[in-house]
Amino acid sequence: MSEAPHATHQFDEHQRATIEAAMARIIPTDDTPGAREAGTIDFLERYLSGIDYIFARPDGSGFEKLEGRTAESWWQRVEAARSKYAQGVEDLDSLAKHQHDVTFVELAEDQQDEVLRTLDARSRGVETQGSTEIAYGMEPALQQTNAEADLDFFPLLVTHTRQGFLSDPIYGGNRDRVGWKVIGFPGPASLAEVHNGTYSTLEYFADNRLHPGQEDNDDERQ
Description:
There is one protein chain. This protein is mostly helical. It is built from 11 helices and no strands.
């Protein structure tokens, strides 16, 4: 018997296991941690729980309270995502049963990949023959030009998996900062360090830390 959703969770036991397994194929565990270790499923369930965890306060003290039209708009967005995930689990199981006569979580990893390729192709309007379609999963989020509300289940799942892997841990994912460690980014101790200016990402994103002309000015002062 499936468990009822927790206070900040929207999935029952089977739904959670299914989505977590799919996320684990999008960012798999190999010689480095993947989606499971980063807790991307916890990131997603926190997001789907309502509008209490949408925007972290800049000082890291919690989350902004959404009100008025902003709150209404975000409720619509979250509820739409909930519906897509509920239907998405059904679609994963339907495809798995059609191809292998078991649910998605019961499939071997290569079989799960096959199902996800099929969903990816469908989301892009591509017809598949067997499992010959290109490898799934990278284009929708990397080249995302539409709002989240416009995404079908699979590209939405890819987007949320990446967000849960790389976003600040305050949002519920990136457990123990494993996502940041994988890409060699230690990150701030908290958002407060970013807000008060004591932490900078400059060294990770700039080859030359000096603004144009600053080197000449420094030479003149010497």
